[in-house]
Task: inverse folding
């Protein structure tokens, strides 16, 4: 009792000058008695309103996997500009798009060499802004975030050929942020399947269409895709010195690929790309799934949505071992006719056999949302949540975002980055948003981190290895929080 009185007398002085949060940070001995998770949760609670400490906490926290990220959108504009300069590409200043060096670059004609956009120059800043969402709200972007976002890809497209260097950048960033696993979306075949589809022409009889494509040497597309991945990974290992004693941390990040299918194309191209994706995933363990890409409100994507679902249903029956993830519900009211917002998520699961949904933002616009939410929960369909992307493209954040609703219904979710290069975001920043914008607590965040590996499409042995590693790292991280300095 005497000791208590003594301590309390000291407290009376301390309370007068030290903020409440600072006092809370000093109570680690209590948490120690309750275990590492309680200590981490308590520290998290104490620092969650302190952006600097919160960001550090979340950067250091093991984050499992990133299940929804597009390779070309994950690279920062600065890298693309450097590679464009190396390749001697030109910059069309009227559109800020890269152009081939034939005809030769010409400053007077508004086509200077990309290399003239040197760091610190006004042109350099203009390029970075035009190739990303940096400063977009301050600029005169007439048609808003959605159009600026998607327009960036066409501008830097000519610099996206260095796939190995792009991989190296993405895994290096992942390692620095304690992300152990990534599923990267990319066009694995470099467009070869789409061309075969065009050559074959459209046939609404899917069985005949598939037979015809396969009969005409479709296996060459698979070989092309595998060879491209081999080359890219070899270059990635070279950049990161993965075979040397000074291997970069990025070498330890496990990567799997998701084949992109461009859903705004002609049906014969979409079908051929889907077929190539299933064929590749069935043959190469590095490729685990496929996803439909391009803005969901694209008129062709909307017109052909049901057709695409039927194609997936047909192909899923022939490749049942290949899991499917689909962008669905990446829409806001007014972006497309209400009919487009009523059934994309439900149809993607029921007809398209999606085991994961990308975004799912318009879930409350679907027919009978409570029934759909219960269905997603009971089928264990995970929703890949990309908060920055939803804010920038759809203008949906805070209470307008359905993350809390998904959690309330027990739908599994995980935090993903989508296009961190274009969005100028990172995995850590997405978690910061999850805390500051969505109010998640530590235990929920930890559950989402675990989901990101539990719902990964990697083979079971790889997944189990990553899960065991995550548990060890989480325990070590939480123990650190017990002894953390204020
Ligand atoms: Zn996406």
Result:
């Amino acid at each position: 009792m005497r000791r208590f009185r003594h301590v309390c007398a000291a407290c009376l002085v301390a309370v007068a000058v030290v903020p409440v949060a600072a006092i809370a940070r000093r109570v680690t001995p209590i948490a120690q008695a309750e275990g590492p998770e309680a200590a981490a949760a308590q520290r998290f609670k104490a620092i969650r309103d302190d952006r600097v400490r919160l960001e550090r906490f979340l950067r250091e926290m093991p984050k499992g996997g990133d299940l929804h990220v597009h390779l070309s959108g994950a690279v920062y504009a600065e890298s693309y500009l450097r590679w464009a300069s190396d390749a001697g590409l030109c910059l069309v200043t009227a559109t800020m798009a890269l152009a081939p060096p034939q005809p030769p670059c010409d400053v007077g004609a508004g086509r200077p060499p990309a290399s003239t956009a040197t760091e610190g120059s006004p042109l350099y800043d203009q390029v970075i802004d035009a190739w990303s969402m940096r400063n977009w709200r301050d600029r005169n972007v007439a048609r808003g975030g959605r159009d600026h976002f998607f327009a960036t890809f066409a501008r830097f497209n000519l610099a996206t050929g260095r796939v190995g260097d792009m991989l190296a950048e993405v895994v290096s960033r992942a390692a620095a942020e304690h992300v152990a696993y990534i599923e990267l979306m990319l066009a694995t075949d470099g467009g070869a399947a789409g061309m075969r589809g065009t050559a074959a022409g459209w046939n609404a009889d899917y069985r005949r269409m598939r037979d015809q494509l396969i009969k005409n040497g479709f296996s060459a597309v698979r070989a092309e895709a595998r060879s491209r991945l081999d080359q890219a990974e070899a270059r990635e290992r070279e950049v990161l010195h993965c075979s040397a004693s000074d291997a970069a941390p990025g070498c330890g990040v496990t990567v799997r690929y998701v084949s992109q299918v461009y859903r705004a194309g002609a049906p014969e191209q979409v079908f051929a790309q889907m077929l190539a994706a299933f064929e590749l995933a069935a043959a190469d363990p590095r490729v685990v799934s496929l996803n439909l890409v391009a803005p969901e409100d694209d008129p062709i994507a909307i017109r052909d949505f049901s057709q695409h679902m039927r194609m997936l249903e047909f192909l899923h029956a022939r490749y049942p071992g290949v899991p499917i993830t689909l962008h669905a519900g990446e829409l806001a009211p007014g972006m497309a006719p209400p009919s487009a917002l009523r059934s994309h998520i439900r149809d993607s699961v029921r007809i398209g056999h999606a085991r994961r949904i990308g975004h799912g933002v318009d879930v409350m616009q679907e027919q009978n949302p409570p029934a759909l939410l219960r269905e997603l929960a009971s089928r264990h369909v995970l929703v890949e949540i990309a908060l920055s992307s939803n804010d920038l493209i759809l203008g949906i954040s805070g209470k307008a975002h359905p993350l809390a609703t998904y959690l309330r219904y027990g739908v599994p979710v995980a935090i993903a980055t989508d296009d961190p290069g274009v969005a100028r975001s990172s995995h850590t920043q997405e978690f910061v948003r999850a805390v500051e914008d969505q109010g998640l607590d530590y235990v929920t965040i930890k559950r989402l981190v675990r989901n990101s590996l539990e719902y990964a499409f990697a083979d079971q042995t790889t997944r189990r290895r990553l899960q065991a590693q995550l548990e060890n790292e989480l325990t070590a991280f939480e123990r650190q929080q017990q002894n953390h300095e204020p």
